[in-house]
Amino acid sequence: MLAEVLTQLALVISILVPVSVIVFIGRERLARTRSEWRSRLRTAGPVIAVLIGVLLINRVARQTAPELSRQVGFHLSGAFYELEGEFILIFQSIQTPETTAYFSTIYVYGYTFLLIFPVIAYFTLSDTRIFRRLLTAYALNYAIGLVLYILVVAYGPRNLMPGELMERMLYNTNPQYQYLTSEVNTNTNVFPSLHTSLSATVATFAWKTRSEFPKWFPIAVVLAASVAISTMYLGIHWALDVVAGTMLAAACVSLSDRLVDRWSVAELSEQFADRLPWPQNQE
Amino acid sequence: MNGGQAAQEPDRAGADGTRLSRRAALATTAGLTASVSGCVGRLRDLFTQRNIRQLSLTITTLPADSDRESIRIANELEQALTTAGVDVSFDVRSGIEFNRAVLYDHDFDICIGHHPGGTDPDFLYEALHSLYIDESGWQNPFGYANLAVDDLLEKQRHADGAERRDAVTNALEAIATEQPFVPICVPEEHRVVNTDRFTGWADGHLATRHGYLGLEPTADVETLRAVHTDSRPTKNLNPLAADYRGRGTITQLLYDSLAADDATGEIQPWLAASWEWRGATLDVHLRNGCTFHDGEPVTAADVEFTYQFLADMSDDDDDRVAPAPRFRGRIDAVEAIDVRDRDRLELTVDAGQAVGERALLVPILPAHIWRDQSDSAVGLGSGALAQGTPTAVATNNMPPVGSGPYQFVNRTEGDQLTLERFDDHFTLRSGVERPAPMVAAFSIDISPNSETAIQAVENDTADVTSAAIDTNHVGSVAEKDGQQLLESPSWTYYFLGFNTRKAPFGNPRFRRVIARLIDKEWLVENVFYGHARPIATPVTEEWVPDSLAWDGQDPETPFLGASGEVDVDAARAAFEDAGFRYDDRDRLRVRQ
């Protein structure tokens, strides 16, 4: 079943990405990328390694973190519920089968596309700085997110008020998606919303690169906003998670600006060619 | 009818019967003043004001992913309590965490969950006897102490036949009066099974080992594929770990017990070939030549060790007594144990025959493995369990070594568990008329929810949904060839438990008012979609006395309201009748 869901996701992405490459990137940049890709990869190598490192740690931590969380984490489901109550039920007013289908699709496919496309798009820019910043911001999102997940044990609204949310819960309309989401996350990891923070990160970069990719900018903003709303509409996240996600995105984008090019990347990459460049991550 | 209730009416949604604008409704009710909390109350306040404040309590329960019904009941209770002037918050915990908080740490005010119950009412002895107040596990997590109830529970334990039935009735009536916990309803158990690959699904109850033994595979079928919605068995297979065990179905397949029971509570020989009663002594003959999965023989010494170990897991020269958190009531019936020879032993019980034989239902542990677990206790900072928890309870027991019909092969945490037939099991011998493991392999795949589990059977990637499916999916299972929706008898029940160690939950008057804020009938219809029966007493139907039979409403604690909606005035009056008072802002005040 997981394989089925993944295949479907891969299929959708493999259609969306080439189409967007043609629409948003343009022939000229692609041609230049073909001649420059080696040197660009070399420059960006260390950052790519950091991101892969963080993702691997995340992967491993998904197994061990719940037990650690149990020991050091704060149980905050009740507190979140107390604080914001039934705020997210305001989306009841826009609830129709169509909006549910839209937000379910956005949550799974839209989000994945939103994360993957800018990586490709920014790689086609001659100046690799924005590409490296994007990857750094991704890595920061995951790294900080993981720490918060360990510290905060909380269930999302769908777990606390299933009755009210019933009709539009993702796993009620598309139960098979829970194979996917339980593969990448546990249900107590709701604070902050990484869906929101990564989407907001992408949208911020889309704004920064709006002169290079003018058509991508509005699309990215609409998609990112839809992702953030979908997390609440589908009852997966509290509004507090979404606010925290937005703040995390802002922090990661600005940190990425300070971190990237802080060290001479060429020197570092030579120095640490056969090691993971941890120093970049320990800032 | 008052303004508060009327304000809620338009907000009520259709099918699920949920209420939307809780806060809006509360705001309205807060504006209404109950007239009864008048001058007298306020005068008395002058003397005792300091330590009396609004009752604020936490409901500990499970998230929808683990148990949709529990959190839904909690949602309804929260609303009822809030309208009655109580400040309510939630503590939502996973299955493991819920059990640790409630059963081990006793760290809760009110809990709502799913109680394993029992086919025989004697489980109430374990659940409520005051001797167990300080122990960890399903033995009296409520901290309930009532000498009269203790006495009644002991009486039914020593009686048999009609005398026992009377004693049980007396105990049940006393418990219903006291409401140490509120039994809510018994959910139906439905499972989806593949009838093309296996037949004989209805022969054994699928929550017990017998459900998975004796199934007839069709030609070429070599694996029994279960899909399970609880990932705990992939993390821990310790039969003593109350935090990881639900009903212990899988550990029953790994560990034999001397006897086995079925859905009617009838007890039959299992690892014991036979037993005879001599006075209060059970003379037990073990089957010859049984071995554990590691090849060591199962002897009377292992049985003796098991009973001694479950009664006290600490080592001999330790003053502490550390009973196991499961099987307490059964173990407690055994007074003395004498090994006569390798395959024969005598159990002297302090109980009648009916309860005495239930002592034979505990898993037999290999002494050569568990003896080492007795000497130490979990030290400071070595895990999420409280300091002093015996390692025998804390261990995940991987790989488990029992003598049961299936043995452990491998597992992937959170994903799957594979067992294989134990070819030396006694049920596979000719001449033994007990259900045997019919297929070579038994795989258990973890599925994230009931619906995906049902789909797995529909798509023929699984043969059985081993956990009962969520009641909201029962109606939507497709009828088709080769697949069947199977209903099994049920004795588990949803309950609201009070931590009677804390004020005001130690007060039976208070507990009775809370019980009357739960509309069991409405919950059954709207949360369980009719697939449950409301109860006033937590025993199987054959044990329910006439006085506690459900007659359209709770005979003991009828609901204070109608159609799930609490009558606020009636609720306040009930609290006041029970000796509690309201302040001028309609908050229920108690000394906490």
Automatic annotation (TrEMBL), chain A:
<feature type="domain" description="Phosphatidic acid phosphatase type 2/haloperoxidase">
    <location>
        <begin position="143"/>
        <end position="257"/>
    </location>
</feature>
<keyword id="KW-1133">Transmembrane helix</keyword>
<dbReference type="Pfam" id="PF14378">
    <property type="entry name" value="PAP2_3"/>
</dbReference>
<keyword id="KW-0812">Transmembrane</keyword>
<keyword id="KW-0472">Membrane</keyword>
<feature type="transmembrane region" description="Helical">
    <location>
        <begin position="216"/>
        <end position="236"/>
    </location>
</feature>
<dbReference type="InterPro" id="IPR000326">
    <property type="entry name" value="PAP2/HPO"/>
</dbReference>
<dbReference type="InterPro" id="IPR026841">
    <property type="entry name" value="Aur1/Ipt1"/>
</dbReference>
<dbReference type="InterPro" id="IPR036938">
    <property type="entry name" value="PAP2/HPO_sf"/>
</dbReference>
<dbReference type="GO" id="GO:0016020">
    <property type="term" value="C:membrane"/>
</dbReference>
<protein>
    <submittedName>
        <fullName>Phosphoesterase PA-phosphatase-related protein</fullName>
    </submittedName>
</protein>
<feature type="transmembrane region" description="Helical">
    <location>
        <begin position="44"/>
        <end position="61"/>
    </location>
</feature>
<feature type="transmembrane region" description="Helical">
    <location>
        <begin position="6"/>
        <end position="24"/>
    </location>
</feature>
<dbReference type="InterPro" id="IPR052185">
    <property type="entry name" value="IPC_Synthase-Related"/>
</dbReference>
<feature type="transmembrane region" description="Helical">
    <location>
        <begin position="106"/>
        <end position="125"/>
    </location>
</feature>
<feature type="transmembrane region" description="Helical">
    <location>
        <begin position="137"/>
        <end position="156"/>
    </location>
</feature>
Automatic annotation (TrEMBL), chain B:
<dbReference type="GO" id="GO:1904680">
    <property type="term" value="F:peptide transmembrane transporter activity"/>
</dbReference>
<feature type="domain" description="Solute-binding protein family 5">
    <location>
        <begin position="266"/>
        <end position="585"/>
    </location>
</feature>
<keyword id="KW-0813">Transport</keyword>
<keyword id="KW-0732">Signal</keyword>
<protein>
    <submittedName>
        <fullName>Extracellular solute-binding protein family 5</fullName>
    </submittedName>
</protein>
<dbReference type="Pfam" id="PF00496">
    <property type="entry name" value="SBP_bac_5"/>
</dbReference>
<comment type="similarity">
    <text>Belongs to the bacterial solute-binding protein 5 family.</text>
</comment>
<dbReference type="InterPro" id="IPR000914">
    <property type="entry name" value="SBP_5_dom"/>
</dbReference>
<dbReference type="InterPro" id="IPR039424">
    <property type="entry name" value="SBP_5"/>
</dbReference>
<dbReference type="GO" id="GO:0015833">
    <property type="term" value="P:peptide transport"/>
</dbReference>
